[in-house]
Amino acid sequence: MKIEYHPAIERELGEIIDYYDECSTGLGNEFLNEFELQILKLAAMPYRWAIVNSDIRRALMRRFPYVIYFRVVNADTLRIIVVKHQRRHPKKGLGRK
User: Is the whole model's pTM more than 0.85, yes or no?
Assistant: First the structure.
């Protein structure tokens, strides 16, 4: 399955990784590894995750308190639209295409 990312995802991931690296050396890489593993799971089973708004689905990360919002564009394309902390406003970023 092809994975597309909203343009803001790169910045969001960079900020999260920088934050965790400030907390502890190497923790940013651990976050990124878990994020990439979660993306592989999303690609393998995109319809497993709960729909939260129209066609937007949500997947929680296991170790870190972050949530990934995505949509299934078609049978072979998945679009990641938001990566955010679980304590952020629930609608933050859901207007992205």
Answer: yes
Q: CB of 81 within 8 A of CB of 71? A: yes
Unique residue bearing structure tokens 């929680």: 60
Residue 90 lies in a domain: no
**22-33 burial by CB neighbour count: b if 16+ within 10 A, else e?**
eeeeeebeebee
Cα distances from 22 to residues 19, 26, 36, 61, in angstroms, run 5, 9, 21, 20
**C-alpha–C-alpha distance, residues 8 and 81, integer Å:** 8
Question: For the chain, what is the domain count?
Answer: 1
pLDDT, tens digit (0-9, with 9 covering 90-100), for 40-53: 999 999 999 999 88
